[in-house]
């Protein structure tokens, strides 16, 4: 029924009365708060008022509530509210009562209207031109390598013409053949959600979501191995240097992608700065791409200054095309194209891209590392943060001082295709309200200010980007970014496997190892140690560190050399000191364990002095002069003491337990001093390499042998605390009590090791208490 003009004038706004004190909050914030409630609390809130009823019955809200609670297989029930009620085990008779929504007048919301529009809009009428991504037919490997690989995107035709998937990967056919198999779903929640193929296809045809779920499964080859037979990697992308990693060590690299109209991938840069190819089998996709370092309008990039982890806040693909794309001047618009069935899009390393499905689509994509992007992948996994921010955000990631240094110390080609924005100094770029942002207004000549500034100074060149590596951070002791595609141990094994298995790439692998591992620095140390102890120089096969530990380890012909760097100098000194004291005890008591422990050939300290490496021997007793100058120890010690032995380490751990998280350790400034140890090399393989090859009898024999050696280990005498220079030092720890007074911990006649243990626990308790109070 239509409302007359007189009646319309009499309708009052429900918002103030319906929200009460909450009326000061924008609708977007209220909806965000509701997202964090449980389904039952949202249902209760809907009873508070007519306005809360409207806000609490939105499908996008119930979609988020479902995805935040489900963890595993999901079955869509026709609406997200019904799906949530089903997950809550609400009886069907109660579900039917709330099936028909109530209608209210007197309330309007632009935010809710935009969401509703995005949920129900159709893209069939969207008129896109052919785009400006170059389209190519027959491309030779040589032409692709010279013109496109690592340089610019290209849309390739004909690469999938012979694939069986061109005829069999229609949505209905996939549902018929793989209907009962569960595939992984991509969505904003951190939960691992899957849906059976038949349930997902049903969802595709029923849903009206603003950001629909889509299948994005990196394990589809394991779920349905026959799918791997339906396509092959095009000849242009055969080289993949991650292939030398086996099984779970290899990061995810291929995905099956199925999505309905309006779904897609929001703005992102592919992980580890890898390159990618994406082949479409049915439907149409719209692509938008920006060169490295140019952040799209509406995207927020955060760079963690501890480990370099990069996180991105971005609108959905559909929202960006509807709300942000129309605001761009022609000069600021992305590179675009519409991908048709059978076509392959190539995305080079570091390029921003966003994909919108114009109709239901099926595609397959793979990321890869080849000779063109290898150094960039190594750079992305190097420790620190500045270079990661620069790779994705350009010079926006730098502060004022860094930008001044850049302008003073670097010449660059202003005619080169390079990008920057020198107007911001934050390590993030945030664009929330583009209409009100003066940086995106158009100048009189039609070119936006941000575009003018963007083409200055930044170059996606490995030498340029490597300038921003944090030289004081190293791969072994710095935090490892959670966004890295592989762990630090896998990183070393990957480079080692390439070094041994692909000798023709050694020059390239060495460049990558120098970026990611600072391999050149550790090799200089290794050569100095070998020269000092009259060992042969390392051969070409021995130049890279090996092992899965947290320190650089080198296997030479007859010995193993370990340089201790983990935790800083003080921690490294205690690590080596306790190890040498252990060997001393073994020899003193002539333990049979000595026959099964590698012989120590030498140990010492290597340090940088006026740009030159120097070495001093050290057997674990006393304190070398170079270490004494670092003020790591207290004054009372004797020349023949194991000052950095087990008792010193215990007190060090006690001090560390009570130290605030942000307080630097004593050795923070001593970053160019490293202890080392040389032992006789053990021949053979580590257990992890032999685990699957050993018989049951061999496993029992190994277990028996290790049990015997463990007994020998426990029979060793514990170093006496009386011989420790720290035994008479009382570390008094103040503890808070309920009445607010502070008292010293009691020190009854108990073993020294118990005292250290109690002190350590007390310190940690104080740390936890302080953090909770601050929070």
UniProtKB/TrEMBL annotation:
Subcellular location: Nucleus
InterPro entries: Cupin_8, F-box-like_dom_sf, F-box_dom, JmjC_dom, JMJD6_ArgDemeth/LysHydrox
Pfam families: Cupin_8 (PF13621), F-box-like (PF12937)
Domain of life per record: Eukaryota
Domain annotation JmjC: ranges: 222-385
Ranges where the F-box domain occurs: 19-65
Zinc-finger is among the record's keywords: no
Keyword Nucleus among UniProt keywords: yes
SUPFAM superfamilies per record: Clavaminate synthase-like (SSF51197), F-box domain (SSF81383)
Gene Ontology annotations for the cellular component aspect, listed alphabetically: cytoplasm; nucleus
Gene3D superfamilies: 1.20.1280.50, Cupin (2.60.120.650)
Gene Ontology MF annotations: metal ion binding; oxidoreductase activity
Cofactor(s) needed: Fe(2+)
Main location: nucleus
Alphabetical keyword list: Iron, Metal-binding, Nucleus, Oxidoreductase
Database matches in PROSITE patterns: FBOX, JMJC
Similarity comment: Belongs to the JARID1 histone demethylase family.
Name under which the protein is recorded: F-box protein
Lineage: Eukaryota, Viridiplantae, Streptophyta, Embryophyta, Tracheophyta
């Amino acid at each position: 029924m239509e409302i007359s003009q007189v009646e319309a004038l009499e309708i009052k706004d429900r918002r103030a009365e319906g929200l009460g004190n909450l009326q000061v909050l924008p609708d977007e914030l209220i909806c965000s708060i509701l997202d964090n409630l449980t389904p039952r609390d949202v249902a209760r809130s809907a009873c508070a008022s007519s306005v809360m009823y409207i806000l609490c019955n939105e499908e996008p809200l119930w979609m988020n509530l479902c995805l935040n609670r489900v963890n595993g297989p999901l079955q869509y029930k026709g609406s997200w509210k019904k799906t949530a009620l089903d997950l809550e085990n609400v009886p069907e008779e109660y579900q039917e009562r709330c099936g028909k929504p109530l209608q209210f007048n007197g309330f309007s919301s632009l935010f809710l209207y935009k969401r509703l529009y995005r949920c129900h809009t159709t893209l069939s009428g969207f008129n896109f031109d052919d785009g400006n991504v170059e389209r190519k037919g027959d491309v030779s490997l040589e032409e692709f390598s010279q013109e496109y690989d690592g340089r610019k995107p290209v849309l390739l035709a004909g690469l999938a013409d012979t694939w069986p998937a061109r005829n069999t990967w229609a949505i209905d056919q996939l549902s018929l053949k793989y209907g009962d198999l569960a595939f992984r779903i991509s969505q904003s929640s951190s939960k691992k959600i899957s849906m059976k193929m038949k349930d997902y296809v049903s969802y595709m045809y029923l849903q009206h979501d603003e950001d629909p779920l889509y299948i994005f499964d990196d394990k589809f080859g394991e779920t349905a191995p026959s799918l791997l037979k339906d396509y092959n990697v095009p000849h242009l992308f055969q080289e993949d240097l991650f292939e030398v990693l086996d099984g779970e060590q290899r990061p995810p690299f291929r995905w099956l992608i199925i999505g309905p109209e309006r779904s897609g991938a929001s703005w992102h840069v592919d992980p580890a700065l890898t390159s990618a190819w994406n082949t479409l089998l049915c439907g149409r996709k719209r692509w938008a791409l920006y060169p490295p370092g140019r952040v799209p309008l509406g995207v927020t990039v955060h760079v963690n200054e501890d480990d370099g982890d990069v996180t991105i806040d971005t609108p959905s693909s559909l929202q960006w095309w509807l709300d942000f794309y129309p605001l761009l001047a022609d000069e600021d618009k992305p590179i675009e194209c519409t991908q048709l069935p059978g076509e392959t899009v190539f995305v080079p390393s570091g390029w921003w891209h966003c994909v919108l499905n114009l109709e239901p689509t099926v595609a397959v994509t793979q990321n890869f590392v080849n000779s063109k992007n290898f150094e960039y992948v190594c750079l992305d996994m190097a420790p620190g943060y500045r270079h990661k921010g620069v790779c994705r955000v350009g010079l926006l990631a730098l502060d004022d001082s860094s930008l001044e240094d850049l302008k003073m110390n670097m010449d660059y080609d202003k005619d080169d295709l390079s990008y920057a924005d020198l107007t911001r100094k934050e390590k993030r770029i945030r664009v929330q309200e583009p209409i009100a942002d003066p940086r995106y207004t158009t100048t009189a000549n039609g070119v936006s200010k941000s575009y003018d500034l963007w083409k200055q100074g930044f170059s996606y060149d490995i030498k340029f980007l490597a300038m921003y590596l944090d030289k004081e951070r190293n791969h072994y002791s710095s935090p490892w970014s959670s966004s890295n595609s592989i762990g630090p141990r896998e990183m070393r094994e990957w480079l080692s496997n390439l070094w041994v298995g692909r000798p023709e790439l050694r020059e390239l692998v060495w460049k990558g190892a120098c970026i990611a591992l600072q391999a050149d620095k550790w090799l200089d140390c290794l050569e100095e140690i070998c020269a000092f102890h009259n060992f042969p120089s390392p051969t070409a096969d021995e130049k890279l560190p090996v092992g899965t530990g947290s320190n650089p380890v080198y296997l030479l012909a007859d010995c193993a050399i370990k340089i201790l760097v983990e935790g800083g100098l003080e921690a490294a000194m205690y690590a080596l000191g306790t190890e040498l004291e252990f060997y001393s005890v073994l020899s003193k008591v002539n333990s049979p364990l000595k026959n099964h422990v590698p012989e120590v050939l030498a140990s010492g300290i290597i340090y940088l002095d006026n740009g030159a490496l120097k070495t001093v021997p050290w057997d674990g007793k006393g304190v070398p002069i170079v270490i004494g100058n670092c003020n790591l120890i207290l004054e009372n010690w004797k020349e023949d003491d194991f000052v950095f032995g087990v008792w010193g380490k215990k007190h060090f751990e006690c001090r560390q337990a009570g130290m605030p998280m942000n307080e630097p350790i004593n050795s923070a400034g001593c970053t160019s001093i490293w202890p080392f140890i040389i032992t006789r090399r053990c021949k053979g393989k580590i257990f992890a390499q032999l685990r699957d090859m050993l018989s049951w009898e061999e496993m029992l024999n190994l277990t028996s042998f290790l049990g015997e050696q463990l007994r020998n280990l426990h029979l060793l005498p514990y170093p006496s605390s009386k011989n420790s220079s720290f035994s008479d030092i009382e570390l008094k720890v103040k503890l808070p009590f309920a009445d607010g007074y502070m008292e010293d911990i009691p020190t009854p006649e108990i073993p020294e090791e118990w005292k250290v243990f109690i002190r350590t626990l007390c310190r940690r308790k104080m740390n936890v208490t302080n953090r909770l109070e601050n929070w």
